[in-house]
Structures are given as C-alpha cells and as structure tokens.
Specification:
about 775 residues, alpha/beta, 28 strands, about 15% strand, Phosphorylase Kinase, domain 1, 6-stranded mixed beta sheet, 28 helices, binds iron/sulfur cluster, Dimethylsulfoxide Reductase, domain 2
C-alpha cells in the first residue's frame, strides 16, 4: 500500500495491536507496537490491512501519534481554580461533588437552559458525546455546540431542505470527481485519499476537477483546476449553473422522476451573466464551460465541499449552488455519484433545531442547525445582560478559546460565566479559564470510536479497544459522567443491579429488563448510556467497557435500517439483529460492516416531506440574484491581502497534539505567500513579517510559494498551542483565531469567513 507506514514482519505480528488514527475524520485503521521504558509508548505504526475502509492505508501523520499519547501536557489530577487565578489539585470525590453541586445551583437559579455544552468529542472520540448527554439531560441543558457549527452547518441546512439527509460522494467509482475548497491530499476526508486521487487522475476516462484558489497538491493532479479568486466561489458556482441551464445540459428526465421545484429555480439561473461572473472569479469562461460540459456528459459525478468554501463568504449559498449542480445533473443515487449513507448515530444530520434543541438561540436569535448553536455567536449569547444568557459551560474534548473565531472575545466570554468546567486530557487554552478541570483517559486508554461513518454501499463502524490502562488516577468520560449522575442522585442502584443480573442471564433477558425499566420510568432513556456503562461495562471484553452505551445505539439502528443491517448479515427481528451487531462490534479487531446498501437506497432515504428532491430554497434566491449587483471582495488600501486563516498542511491536523515537535517541518507554521508579494513587501524566504487584520496582529515567518495566488496568503491551522517545558510554556506559531472576528460570518448558518480575512503585511526590521 503506497501510503502505508511501517513494514510488516510476520515474526512480530503478535506484538501489533489494532487501533485507529484519531487525527482526521477518516479514522484509518492502524496497527501499533507499544514500547519505551514503561511499555506505554506507541513506537511503531502501520496501516491495518484488515480495516474494511482504510485497507492498510495511513498517511504520514499517524506515524507520530505518540506525541498525543505521551508527554508533559497530560493532566493527572482534577484542578480547581483559586480566587487568585492559580489552580490547586483536588481529589476526585471533591471534584465530582463540587462540580455537580455548582451546576445544580446554576440550574436551580437560572434554569438548565442556561448551561451550555461545548464539544463532545473530536474526530476520533465520539463516545464522550453520548455519555456527556447524560449529564446534559440531568441538568436540563438544551443548548450546545461543537466545531461542526463553524464548518458544516450551512451544508447540513441545505441538505436537510433539499434531500432531508446528508449526502457524500462515491469517489472510488466516479467518472468525474469534484472537490470544492478541499485538498484531500492533506485534509483527507475520503478513505485512502491519495490512492483514490491518483486513480482518478491517471485514468484518461475519468476527470478530476478542483475548485480552489491555491494550486494545491490535489489541484496539481486535476484535469481541470478552476483557480478561483479567494471569496468568489458563489460567482463561480452561479456561472457554472448558468452554463448548465443556458446550454440546456440539465437532466430533465431524471428531475421529472425524482425532483420538485425546477420551475422555481430556473428563472434564477437562466439569465446569469456567465462571462461577467467568470471575470469576477478570475477563471476563464472557456475553462468554466469546459468543466460544466464534462460534468454534464459524465455517467457519474461525486462531489465534496469542505472548509475552503464552508468557512468563506456566501458559504450557505455556495452549499446550495453545489447541491444544485449535483441534482440538476442527476448525480445522485447511483454508483459513482452522491448517496445518503446508513448511520449508526446521525452526527451529520441537521435541519433547524434538532436533538431536542430549540430553533433559535436565546439571545441573538440565531438559527440552531442540527442542534448546534453557531460558534460565532457564543460570545454574544454570554456577554450581555439578557436574562436568557448562557451562565455556565461544560466543555468536553473541545477548546473554544483557541478553536473558535475571535479568541480575544471568546476568552472574555468564558471569563464572564458563573461556572466553566473543562473535561480534557491536557491543560488547554480553555482549561486555563475554567473553574474546574477534570482530566480523563486518553483516546488510547479506553474504548473509543467515531460516528463519522459515511461509506457506501458498505458502511463500517470501529470500536477500538483500549491499548493501555489509563494513567494512575484517571478514567474515561463514561466513568466520569456516571459519577456525576451519581452525585446528582440520578443513577438508580437498583436499575444497575437489575440490568447487571439480566446481562449475565443472556441477551433476551437483558433487553426485556431494559425495556421494562424504560417503560416504567422515562428517565431511564435519558441516563441509558451511563446506566449501561455501570451495569455491563466491566462485563464486556477487556478494553471495551466504554462500548457499553453502544447497546442502545445498536437497538435504534436496527429499528431504523433493518434492510441495510440484514444485507450486512444482521438478520432476524430487529432486536436480535441489534444484539448480533453489538456482539460483532465488541468482538471485531478492526471495523465491522454494519450496513450494506444498493444504490437505490439513497432515494428511500430522502427525508423531505414529499420524499422527493426539493430543488428550491426560496430563502436563498435574493442572495443568489444579488450576486449580479454585489461588489465582489476587493483588496482595500488598508488591508490589501486576503488571509486564509487555518490551512491543512502535511503536519497539521486537529489540535489534539500540543507538542510542536510532532511537526517534522515548519514547526513555527509559516505564512505562505507568492514570491511576487514577498518582493513587494520586501521579505525573503524565512524572513519575518507583521501580519495585521481588523482583529489583531502577529509576527510570523514567511514561506515563499507559487501555489498561492498573488494577494492571497495562508496560515496553517492548529498552531499557537501552549506546551509545557521545564523553562515554562512554549507556544509555537500563531493561533489563527487571534486574527479573526466573530462578526465575519454567514447570515444563514453563522459559519465564519476564516478563508477570506482582509489582511495587511509589513516586513519586520
Ligand atoms: S490523518 Fe487521517 S488519513 Fe492520515 S492516517 Fe490519520 S486518519 Fe488516516
């Protein structure tokens, strides 16, 4: 496998343990070898051939995962902030008792809706979200958010309206692959990304199209690179749809069979001035027409939009235009096109409201999409005297003081809260502002999983077992939330005992006991994950305790997708199928295929009221029509550059690795700029410049790169994290959100414009 790392040696196979990489949503299956002085280091890493999605693939980032697992950043004791702002270590009983009591006080005084929950898991640890849900429900907390609400919620909103479900692309089989604002070479997002990209690129019958202002590694493989000016994606997509409609390349027959609303949409596309819009984007009209004709002529097209357009101007409109391009060309519900996958837990679903949340946030009345408050409005929901403001925050596996727009304002907001509790493995930028910090086991010291299960026609789930016992004094989030539930007096010991005894009798007695308990007490469902963990966690195979909550997940999945599960071999009545799936998940070393679909299944999953595709989103028509008269983003005299704040590079991922030494190169995270710009500014490679935005200013090293357009510069994501050293905290690089503003956001979803921040650059002496 071309991208696999580490070499297989048959003799040593027994030493390799199965797990997964946790650095991006792919969660590639890994095999690792433990070693080092105490046997707690991950010393060798290779792709897991038996993993059905990644099939032995792993990129260079996974190789250095020990930088996450081990180091002085790991916390070992609960911390309580003193009045002077310093922290003291406290014992677990005190920590749990005080945290429960203080949240209870906030709830009793201001209502549970004033307690905000942020996070719930990164890309590879979604089980804490399930266990954290118990604490949320017991406290009456209904408002929450996570990083998804600064990335994907615009797309979720559009998908909910048009399809009633979240769709993905089948790049393995597509004739045309289209990436919008995405560089899978480094950001991945599809299984075996580099293998798949090369396969499309090398096949003369297939076509790779990339929309990106940068000449990325993916764009270099592309047949057609639409190198759009930063921030003008909406004009480009509108021009593409203009070509499609005006040259009558629309798939009328397919639309008549599957979609409504074509007559409402066409007037907004029929008169688009294609030449004018292409000029705005800087892409030649000829190339745009060529791309659209190639798409229209293809038997299938798979697409993927990502942060380059989703953290940019007109982002929800761009998501809409993207989906129109997919649907007007019938690129849905067939091999090589876009599909709606079966889910175990539908993390990527989301119309307005959702997950028990209201439709609007209490103070700013911002749209809540998929249950998530827009990240950019969180400070406005706190820094106010509005009676419904958020008063307390529980942060779990998240770092809003670093990861959300306008860190200065976010810190101010966190400091204004009556109570902040952070659950994390490290002393993060957010932990510094907390009243209590509760350290937990790492992702390799407990059973863990991702619910980003988006594959088709075979979809997979991987419960990876604990590789290591937790550090002394630590335990998982499952245990932590069970203890909090106990402290709140809400984890009935008799229910735990009943379920525990029933489990030992067999699967059927167990589910009879569970449903009997739930029938008699509706609260049982609210606390189900913690109850299951307490009752059967330690009865599960070694290292799988935190998988206990999945028993309920399997029951729901079997009711929802019985045919998909049956095709995957989980047959019988849904209860038996659920039990069989749960057993398979527990016993599997790599991942389990939990759903097998045929391509038509996507049409059955269309969740709109009419069960047909809905092409029209009238709320967006004014914005679409307004492009004709709107001034495109212009360089201004004070801020002549466009900064892309947070670029995914070879050694950037999510922010769970805090040690800057994990990056093999560019440890300080350089500002990439075109050589012509550097010359104008008067700086050479490795020189330093002052980078200033309307929010802040920082001194950064420069890397010259003709991948950037003149006038466009980029900073990597994930830098600016404090890492403890004997000499004091070391902060390498610039945290991009010191330079962004929360008011720069999309009007529909509130997603930030991080990819087009006006900036000024001056050479440093
Ligand atoms: S970073 Fe992503 S693509 Fe690379 S090994 Fe990890 S999960 Fe796989």
């Amino acid at each position: 496998m071309a991208e696999s790392i580490g070499q297989k040696t048959a003799a040593a196979d027994a030493d390799w343990k199965s797990t997964a990489c946790i650095l991006c949503e792919c969660n590639c299956g890994l095999e690792v070898e433990l070693g080092g002085a105490a046997g707690r280091n991950i010393v060798r890493v290779r792709g897991d051939d038996a993993h059905p999605a990644s099939q032995g693939y792993a990129c260079e980032k996974a190789h250095r995962i020990d930088f996450y697992q081990n180091g002085p950043h790991r916390l070992t004791k609960p911390l309580r902030r003193r009045a002077d702002g310093t922290f003291e270590e406290i014992d677990w009983d005190t920590a749990i008792r005080e945290v429960a009591e203080r949240f209870r006080q906030v709830r009793d005084t201001h209502g549970g809706e004033s307690i905000f929950y942020y996070g719930g898991g990164g890309q590879g640890n979604h089980l804490p979200g399930a266990y954290g849900g118990v604490t949320r429900k017991l406290l009456g907390s209904i408002h929450r958010s996570s990083a998804l609400a600064q990335e994907k919620t615009g797309e979720f909103w559009v998908a909910a309206k048009m399809l009633g479900g979240y769709s993905r692309g089948d790049f393995e089989h597509c004739e045309v692959g289209l990436f919008l604002g995405k560089n899978p070479w480094f950001s991945h997002g599809i299984p075996r990304a580099r293998v798949t990209l090369r396969a499309i690129s090398r096949d003369p019958e297939r076509c790779l199209i990339v929309i990106d202002p940068r000449r990325t590694e993916t764009a270099e493989l592309a047949d057609i690179h639409l190198q759009v000016r930063p921030g003008t994606d909406a004009w480009l997509l509108a021009a593409m749809l203009g070509v499609l409609v005006q040259e009558d390349l629309v798939k009328h027959e397919w639309l008549a069979e599957h979609a409504d609303g074509l007559a409402d949409v066409l007037p907004h596309l029929a008169n688009i001035p294609v030449a004018k819009y292409c000029a705005i984007t800087g892409v030649s009209e000829e190339l745009v027409r060529k791309a659209v004709r190639r798409i229209a002529a293809a038997k299938s097209m798979a697409t993927f939009e990502d942060l380059g357009v989703q953290m940019n101007r007109h982002s929800t409109l761009v998501s809409y235009l993207h989906k129109l391009l997919v649907l007007l060309t019938g690129s849905f519900g067939k091999k090589g096109a876009n599909y709606i996958p079966a889910t175990l837990v539908p993390l990527a679903a989301g119309g307005e409201g959702g997950g028990g949340a209201p439709k609007l946030s209490p103070v700013t009345q911002s749209r809540i999409i998929g249950g998530l408050t827009p990240c950019n409005v969180i400070p406005d929901e706190i820094l106010t005297d509005h009676p419904k403001r958020y008063r307390a925050m529980l942060v779990e596996s998240g770092n809003p003081a670093h990861s959300l727009a306008d860190s200065v304002r976010m810190r101010e907001a966190l400091a204004a809260l009556d109570l902040v509790v952070v659950i994390d493995v490290a002393f993060t930028e957010t932990a510094k502002l907390a009243h209590y910090v509760l350290p937990v086991a790492s992702q390799y010291e407990k059973a863990e999983a991702t619910f980003f299960n988006f594959e088709f026609p075979h979809n997979y789930f991987h419960l990876r077992r604990a590789l290591l016992k937790p550090e002394d004094g630590l335990f998982s989030e499952a245990e932590l939330h069970a203890r909090i539930a106990d402290a709140l007096g809400e984890l009935p010991a008799d229910a735990v005992a009943t379920l525990r005894a029933a489990w030992q009798e067999g699967r059927k007695p167990f589910r009879d006991a569970f449903f009997a308990l739930a029938g008699g007490n509706p609260k049982i469902l609210a606390i189900a994950p913690a109850l299951l963990f307490r009752a059967i966690g330690d009865l599960l195979p070694e290292g799988a305790a935190e998988g206990a909550g999945l028993w309920a997940v399997c029951q729901i999945a079997a009711q929802k997708n019985p045919a998909s599960l049956a095709r995957a071999g989980f047959t019988g009545d849904p209860f038996d199928a659920a039990d069989a799936l749960f057993d398979a998940i527990l016993s599997s070393k790599s991942a389990v295929v939990f759903a097998v679909d045929d391509w038509e299944e996507s049409f059955k999953r269309i969740g709109t009221k009419s069960r047909r595709v809905q092409l029209a989103i009238p709320e967006l028509f004014d914005e679409l029509d307004g492009l004709a008269t709107e001034a495109p983003p212009q360089a201004d005299a004070d801020f002549p550059f466009v900064l892309s704040a947070g670029e995914r590079r070879s050694f950037t991922a999510n922010t769970i690795i805090r040690n800057p030494e994990w990056r093999k190169k560019d440890v300080e995270g350089s500002l990439r700029m075109h050589p012509a710009d550097a010359q104008k500014v008067g700086v050479g490679a490795g020189g330093r410049v002052r980078l200033t935005t309307r929010r802040g200013s920082a001194v950064v090293p420069v890397e010259l790169s003709d991948r950037m357009q003149p006038g466009h510069v980029s900073l990597p994501n994930g830098l600016g994290l404090a890492f403890p050293t004997p000499e004091g905290p070391r902060v390498a690089g610039i945290a991009p959100n010191e330079l962004t503003r929360s008011e720069d956001r999309d009007w529909v979803a509130g997603t930030p414009w991080h990819k087009s921040v006006p900036a000024r650059i001056e050479a440093c002496a």
